[in-house]
């Protein structure tokens, strides 16, 4: 399965989980709140966690690509 989706900083954490349920593992590993902070955008979540949103998106895209290849 080929994945052509590009995750954007404006996506909420919930958007990512809805589209890619297995990405919750990556989000949790990065220390992002996947529960109460689910309505925050990735940019807001990154700022709250003191992380670089571009690095978060790169990690998520890598994770999503690996999962798509495994399917």
Report the radius of gyration as a whole number of Å. 11 Å
Number of strands: 0
Please bin the fraction of helical residues: 40-55%
Query: What is the terminal-to-terminal distance?
Result: 6 Å
Q: In terms of per-residue confidence, which ranges show pLDDT below 50 for 5 or more consecutive residues?
A: none
Structural class: mainly alpha
What does this structure look like?
By secondary structure, the chain is mainly alpha-helical. It has one domain (13-70). 55% of the residues lie in helices and 0% in strands. The chain is built from 4 helices and no strands. It has helices at residues 13-19, 24-29, 42-49, 53-70. The longest helix is centred in the C-terminal third of the chain and has 18 residues, at 53-70. The radius of gyration is 11 Å and the shape is globular. The protein starts with 12 loop residues before the first helix and ends with a helix. The model has no long low-confidence stretch (mean pLDDT 89).
